[in-house]
Amino acid sequence: MEEGNRLNRPVLRFLLVPQLTVLSLNMCPRLVIKAVADIIAVRCKNLSSLDIRGCCRIPADSLVDLVKALPSLAQLNLSDTQCNAQVLAAVGSHCRQLLELDVVDCSRLSPECLLHLAYDPATGSLRSPALKVLRARYLMGRPLLQCMVQHLVFLLLALRSLTILDHPFVLEAVCAIYRRQFDNVPVAPEFPSLEELARRRMSTHNGHGLTLTLTELDDVALSCLPAALAVCPHLADVTLILEGNPGFGQDFAPWRHISCLTLDNDSQCDVADLLPMAAALGPQLHSLSLSGFLCEDASSFWTFLGHCLNLRKLVANLPPPAVCAPDGDDDDDDEEMIEDLEENFSPVPHQFPHLRYIFLMYPDSEGPLPSQHKAVFRACLVSLLRHSPQLESLLLACLPFSLDSVFEQVLEPPATALTHLQKLSLMETRVSGSTIHLLLSSENQLSFIDVPACSRIFRADYDEFLRRVRSEGFDMEISWE
To answer: Which biological process terms from the Gene Ontology are attached to this UniProt entry (predicted)?
Structure first.
């Protein structure tokens, strides 16, 4: 619900009817007070999803009453509210079908408060049996790291269905479980020790070891990955941080469930160094993000992609190569030279039948790239666009060559590329107005075009885009500045 001139508290109350199953009030937090929460608790007992993030005018005791009245909730967002330990205890005990909970930025919650979501000190029983996703960043205070990790270990051991725990120190907790760092003292007053909780969990694993159901981990150093995979054998979405001189080894069997892979490179690693990993994992990847990898041989990037034909999403932010062209080789006049070189390089056509999202950034901020480098990369881009028939979103930024000829080749009849394209962003690229008109004349589903900071597009071009969109009745937004 959006807050506007027509929406006030009486209207909001009128809209709160028993038939509601999904309710989001995050767009009108000022209207949501105790009285509104009380009405929701009485009238909207069929809710399966409730989003009241930012509704900080609801007192904690009213939040307790609210969640107690909504036992069918599967999704609950309490971010930036007065949520406290008592609210979490009520959630854990009464919302037993809850799958997703968001308590980000709750200033009255400490990491220790989260324990009440998972365990009932009065009965000694576990709570929140179905919870799969818990987002708990930016909570109250800054406890000692060791205490915070202990609390997270407790959550991971107690919440047996958890697949995602969004917290900056979850990896440290996973590694603590791997090392069996379980104290034999209560993790908090009235709560059991980690050792007792671990034994309790082990007793239900039928001798298969202490493993978790987590499927997603962020900011994992490569050196920590074996421990993470040992504790979380079903990891599917991983962000790896590569430092120094990373070595992947040859055994990728533990990676068998990973389908979404993000690689952040803080070293001098080249895309070519990733080829053995791509050969082993490429076919299973649905989402791939590369950031900071050198690409001294532009063709190695295409070879890498050739192993990843089942991608649905591709993100690549590549820094400029170490070797740049001599001064003066970056003039626009070298476009003809690039085209001549491009004719001598014909990339092996790879088919990407499922690819729907592409983001490519390849700046030449350190100096002009060699023409050969540009030609190879541009030829690869043309082939990528030609052979991604389901592409819906294309975002290109800071590419070091003209995109006019790229789109001319991609859209050259009888080609049928980009017919499903809906969103196009060409930030700081060398593209002219003629290419935008070519796209407007082509068969596609474009509803949004963004051309910010494009040096070859001027105000007159933008005005002409808008005039054409209006005159031809396109349902499209075009952004320039």
So the answer is: SCF-dependent proteasomal ubiquitin-dependent protein catabolic process
Tally helices (H) and strands (E) across the chain.
16, 18
Joined tokens for residue 138:
């930016």
CATH class of 217-479: alpha beta
Distance CA 194, CA 365 (A): 51
Query: Residue 346: is it exposed, middle or buried by C-beta count within 10 angstroms (0-12/13-18/19+)?
Result: exposed
Q: Do the domains at 9-202 and 217-479 have one common CATH topology?
A: yes
In tens, the pLDDT along 1-49 reads: 544 456 788 888 888 999 999 999 999 999 999 999 999 999 999 999 9
Tens-place pLDDT, residues 160-201 = 999 999 999 999 999 999 999 998 899 999 999 999 999 999
Q: Is 12 exposed, middle or buried (0-12, 13-18, 19+ CB in 10 A)?
A: middle
Pull the structure tokens for residue 215.
Answer: 């499927």
CA dist 156 and 153 (Å) reads: 5
Q: How far is CA 234 from the centre of its chain?
A: 18
**Which residue from 96, 56, 104, 39 is spatially nearest to 77, judged by alpha carbons?**
104
Half-sphere exposure at residue 206, Cβ-oriented, CA atoms within 13 angstroms: 0
State pLDDT tens for residues 241-286: 987 666 676 678 889 999 999 999 987 789 999 999 999 999 999 9
Q: Which CATH number fits domain 9-202: 3.40.50.150, 3.80.10.10, 3.40.630.30, 1.20.1250.20?
A: 3.80.10.10
Tokens 């060559």, residue?
401
> Do 174 and 212 touch, CB atoms closer than 8 A?
yes
CA 274 → CA 216, 319, 391, distances in Å? 21, 16, 25
**Do 55 and 82 meet the contact criterion of CB atoms below 8 Å apart?**
no
Prior bond of 189 cis (ω within 30°): no
Distance CA 176, CA 406 (A): 51
Q: Which amino acid is at 181?
A: Q
Q: What are 469's two structure tokens?
A: 């969109």
Domain boundaries, the chain: 9-202, 217-479
Which residue matches tokens 């958890």? Answer: 162
**Inter-CA distances, 114 with 37, 83, 177, Å:** 23, 11, 18
103: number of Cβ within 10 Å:
27
Cβ–Cβ under 8 Å, residues 275 and 295: no
Task: Look up tokens 């406890």; give the residue.
Answer: 143
User: What b/e sequence results for 201-221 when a residue is b if at least 16 CB atoms lie within 10 Å of its CB, and e otherwise?
Assistant: beeeeeeeebebebbbbbebe
pTM score, whole prediction: 0.90
